[in-house]
């Protein structure tokens, strides 16, 4: 390392409402390096970056760019220093077109002030092409899939010709090939002298692209160094203060009767001829790559999508679920994949976000039983280790991972007989993942039927009794959780192998 880093943060302190969130934190980023910023949910990563990005002011401490102290009083000053910020909770505007989002606040105009639309579209197209993305710059963002929204945020940073790019969990909704593209691009940015601060809970990714790391725990700096010399276990230990078990969580518990039966479920272009049964006490996994149709399949079973054919039976009775309300009535709960869009109400308090799907539990003769609600919240706060000092604050004040824990608590509290989790550990740190796995296993031991969707095969293997692999809308293999291994699952997930006989 040289002695003239591109960016230095020194002795940063920050409190919110008297609660310290960062304590004397320092961070040094060299020119042309990819620096991982690591730590548990709520450790202070996004807050530290918000200070660098001029979103929050520090209570103490200073920031230096190229050796000169800079007061990051607002986001514009930070941008002028060549710093771009790809936020964890995506900030694209759904009602604007792609190119309008790209140039929001820095529109290209001609001399008399008219917008140069074609030029902005051309530039948008060119940057998108470097990311390997082919979308119409004039398309409305609301019509696009979440992964494109993330790509737009990334493209925006590229367009600005930044010197330092902050990426706060940039890959949460990207497909594998998009992640690989991003990594290629990060490497070439690095070659051209751009620095990157990379926040992620996926240790594999960090090991692949990062040169150095800094770990925060409870708002304090606990370690920093070069990536090469560390193995992932050491870093995990620094983050969570303990080693993480690689064992399977799920035990063989006796199953009850069949609770859900799905026959020949088909939705043109999304999934085809899906058959499975689910028993009480069973945890059934679905995995595959992006585009395998599993999310669409379960969005249909929960009534978010209506156009499908086939039979669904709950407790032996034929049901037609074409609205989430009907799904709930049939005893199905669903933890969806896109937290910000589908699962939280951001202006509502943390505690009410928890009770949203189960208001009935907290009512008696029309009155809300506050104490019971508080008691239940305390239970989940302990069980899932939710970091929040005051549950009355709005949920958007919580760190990303802690918001996800509240969403999970909401559905655990709704206490449905069948619970579907789509990508439940998105943005959750390695330590807290274990607590969520434990809750899922406990549900099954209580006789609930659980379905888990995840693209991470190791996660599915850890918590499922049996595993369905999907490829292009079809189930291509079924494994017993005990004997499943990651390589074999990948062969079916990528379509390089498929079972000869029909699954079902
Ligand atoms: N605007 C705010 N008001 C009050 N508290 C806040 C605010 N922003 C962040 N916090 C608190 O600061 C702490 C650190 O949050 P931060 O978002 O920095 O965590 P993080 O390390 O990014 O976690 P994650 O991995 O879950 O994203 C949390 O306890 C959070 O609730
Ligand atoms: Mg964060």
TrEMBL record:
Keyword field contains Chloroplast: no
GO molecular-function terms, A-Z: ATP binding; ATP hydrolysis activity
ABC transporter domain ranges (all copies): 7-243, 250-497
The organism's place on the tree of life at top rank: Bacteria
Gene3D superfamilies, per the entry: P-loop containing nucleotide triphosphate hydrolases
EC number: 7.6.2.13
Localization, UniProt: Cell inner membrane
A cellular component term, taken from the record's GO annotations: plasma membrane
Enzyme class at the top of the EC tree: translocase
Keyword Manganese set for record: no
UniProt keywords, alphabetically: ATP-binding, Cell membrane, Membrane, Nucleotide-binding, Repeat, Translocase, Transport
Catalytic activity annotation: ATP + H2O + (2R,4S)-2-methyl-2,3,3,4-tetrahydroxytetrahydrofuran-[AI-2-binding protein]Side 1 = ADP + phosphate + (2R,4S)-2-methyl-2,3,3,4-tetrahydroxytetrahydrofuranSide 2 + [AI-2-binding protein]Side 1
UniProt family annotation: Belongs to the ABC transporter superfamily. AI-2 autoinducer porter (TC 3.A.1.2.8) family.
Protein name: Autoinducer 2 import ATP-binding protein LsrA
Organism name: Planococcus halotolerans
